[in-house]
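Researcher: Here's the sequence for the chain we discussed earlier.
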Amino acid sequence: MLHGANALRIQSREHPDGWGLGWYVGRVPQVVRSLSAAHGDEDFEHVGSFVTASTILAHLRKASVGAVSLVNTHPFEWGPWLFAHNGTISDWRLISPAVETRIDAGLRAKLRGETDSERCFYLFLTCLADRCDP
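Model: Thanks. This is the structure I predict for it:
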């Protein structure tokens, strides 16, 4: 994350619109987010230096859908799940109404941000709940 030619701190120069880290302590997800670019954020270096986990989900944001805000910064969390998405879904404005209607109403009420990623996460959770036992 911090050192090396392709470290996340270096990549954040091209993805400056915030960062987020998610990891698990036992089975409980932990999430830290910031609106600062990782390469200039002391918190990124601090968190990156103390987090040790078998699973870490790191995301650098280059805003395309949704404003630069904490509610739009990945990873997203629900129950035991963490989710991040890199990229932009083509024709999002055209398909977003259809995606939103397929999200479970209870999950749809939990939407906080404006991103395609958060909606895809809740759609994934909806499909998972439809096909899996709790």
